[in-house]
TrEMBL record:
This is Putative c-type cyclin protein. Keywords: Membrane, Transmembrane, Transmembrane helix. Gene3D superfamilies: Cyclin-like. One of its GO terms (biological process) is regulation of transcription by RNA polymerase II. The keyword Transmembrane helix applies. One of its GO terms (molecular function) is cyclin-dependent protein serine/threonine kinase regulator activity. The chain crosses the membrane at residues 39-59. It comes from Botryotinia fuckeliana (strain BcDW1).
Length: 159
């Protein structure tokens, strides 16, 4: 089986959306995290790269004081994404995130509207990653190991 990686698409799109080093690193981390899901089997690499850029732009700490994905709860990520997309249409002033009178999120939205990329697939990928981060937040490795060890001992498989 051949799985194509979204890193090339991510690198190519960094210049298009004028991503900062911090945003690029966050998007790269999101791409790394997506390998712990089944997304690479179902979606094209460019779709995953755009999803990573979208999440990086929405979750960047310097934009609205939102923490990065590794430190936020999934519900905070979802509400932050909604707030950023809502405020993208209302953004005013000369903030550093603005590019030619538009925020980066607005620029991404315009770019997506003009492209032939499947927006529904990007939404599905985004929801899958938010669900993944929520599951990771509730995962307790110590508790899981204890439960597995109890199961093994109860079945007598430890001999």
């Amino acid at each position: 089986m051949i799985v194509h990686h979204p890193y090339r698409s991510l690198t190519a799109l960094q210049g298009t959306f004028s991503l900062t080093a911090e945003e690029s690193n966050l998007a790269w981390s999101i791409v790394n995290d997506h390998y712990m899901t089944d997304l690479p089997l179902f979606y094209a690499p460019h779709t995953i790269a755009i999803m990573a850029i979208l999440l990086a732009l929405v979750l960047r700490p310097n934009a609205t004081g939102i923490q990065s994905a590794s430190g936020s709860s999934a519900s905070n990520i979802a509400s932050a994404a909604q707030a950023a997309l809502t405020s993208a249409g209302q953004a005013k002033g000369g903030t550093p995130e603005r590019q030619g009178g538009r925020t980066k999120v607005q620029k991404l939205a315009s770019w997506l509207a003009e492209s032939t990329i499947d927006v529904e697939a990007i939404v599905d990928c985004t929801q899958e990653m938010i669900s993944f981060y929520e599951a990771q937040e509730h995962y307790n490795e110590k508790l899981t190991r204890e439960q597995i060890n109890r199961f093994i001992k109860a079945r007598g498989l430890d001999k």
